[in-house]
Amino acid sequence: MSSEPVVQRESLSKVLSRRDILALAFGTMVGWGWVMLTAGWVTSAGVLGAIIAFIFGAVMCMLVGATYAELTPALPLAGGELVFSYRGLGYFWSWFTAWAICLAYIGVAAWEGIAISTAINYLIPFPQAIELWTINGSTVYLTWSMVGIIGAAIIMIINLIGIKQSAVFQTVGTAGLILSGIIFITGGAFLGSPSNVEPLFTGIADGVGPMAGILAVAMMAPSMFVGFDVIPQSAEEMKIPPRQIANVVYISILMGAAWYIIMILAASLSAPAEVRDSFSGSVPVAEIAAYALGSPVWGKIMILGALCGIVTSWNGFFIGASRVIFSMGRAKMIPAMFGKVHPKYQTPTASIILVGIICMVTPLMGRNALVWFVDTASFGTVVAYLMVAISFIMIRRNEPELNRPYSNKKPMLTGALAIASALFFITLYLPFGPSHLIWPYEWAFILFWIVLGVILAAAAKATVGPVSPAEREYLIFGEEYARKDILKGLLKKE
Q: Comparing 431 with 323, which gets the higher pLDDT?
């Protein structure tokens, strides 16, 4: 006698190695931001102040990461946040959490279309031609938009033909990114001067104090460390022992923190403060490298590394967003077509195409409008972190017997600290916070995203009809990880 589910459940192929996963997490996390923002961090907080800010941010992300490290190997299924929050909090909050993290991934991915145009223009200047329109004070040119559109189409195609192909692409890009970082570090260490690191803190000379600068940099941490949370999205496609997944989560956060701290030191050593500040209107790290190494060629080499960071981040968020959408479609939270897998390539075709279409349209909105995407993405990230932390505590309380290949020694304290960390970051984005979202534009975008999600949820309900708790349990978790008391009755005997 064997049991077989009455309903059919799509699944993904297990092809990702430990190296693939580390490249996915690190490449997604580091991306392009360090090229544009490192010098600004030093200006805002001072060298030591910026380092303290990132240590603070890394610790807070590690607290959240600890919940992911336990939950992911226990429930290694596509969707990550959807899976955890459904298990801990039920349908509504699961839908809410999944849609929030989807906003985060797509928001950052949308920006990459503009980022790649900026990087390529630094290497090979091309005209801003064929004016289309102006949005939020930014004129949109067809030439710039087409670079982002073509780039998004290429990333989409790579993701369509297979997750292994995407992983190879990610590994190569990450290697190029790391090589550019080594060049930058070498220039700062051997050709720079220790006197350039002044000031260690900003705000002291004018009596403001260093804390303002440190907090200004620390509030960027959620967007700078986003990437480790892509790991659970691809958990279903990993071919490593479950316990190793927890190690990869921690290692990826530590690698990201080390990278940012080393880049801050390299930028500080490479050029004095007045020189660093003069590059604020261009591509700072490229300009600093050219200054330190004595040739504009080195600046262009840094841009090549930045291009690698753009495509690894882009590819990572493509994977993350498409897997969340796939898991929602498979669970029939949105139309079921998004939960289908291509019979040949074993990729969630409709989900990837949806992400691709969004990423190809957004470059037409211009640089200034896309800032709204980035800001709301950061907010969506910390909201999802909060829900995962709460789910972590609820699962610990409700399912103490759940098989946990990795287990936190003090789970309730871990969960409480993760909740506190997420709430701290959320307050930064609220109307009274120092990094509050812009009214009405960014809040309107969040409202639009919620309305779109509701429309898709309604469409799913209209097309597939009611879904029983047992069926939903099976669709989300499969037979292996489903709660047997809920699944009872869905399985038939043969």
A: 323
Query: What structural domains does the chain harbor?
Result: 3-493 (1.20.1740.10)
- Residue type, position 421, single letter: S
At 458, list the tokens: 């309604």
Burial of residue 233, with CB atoms counted within 10 A of its CB: 0-12 exposed, 13-18 middle, 19 or more buried: buried
Residues 6+ apart with CB under 8 A from 288: 39, 184, 267, 270, 271, 275, 276, 279
pLDDT in tens, 35-73: 877 888 888 888 898 899 889 888 888 999 999 999 999
Tokens encoding 400 = 């103490």
Tell me the whole-structure pTM to 2 decimals.
0.88
Q: Which of the four pLDDT bands, split at 50, 70 and 90, describes residue 206? A: low
Single-letter amino acid, residue 149: I
Residue 149 β-bridge partners? none
Residue with tokens 């630094």: 122
Q: How many CB atoms lie within 10 A of CB 295?
A: 12
* Angle of the 367-398 helix axis to the 81-89 helix axis, nearest 10: 40
Of the candidates 403, 397, 381, the one whose C-alpha atom is nearest the C-alpha of residue 80 is 381
Are the beta carbons of 158 and 166 closer than 8 angstroms? yes
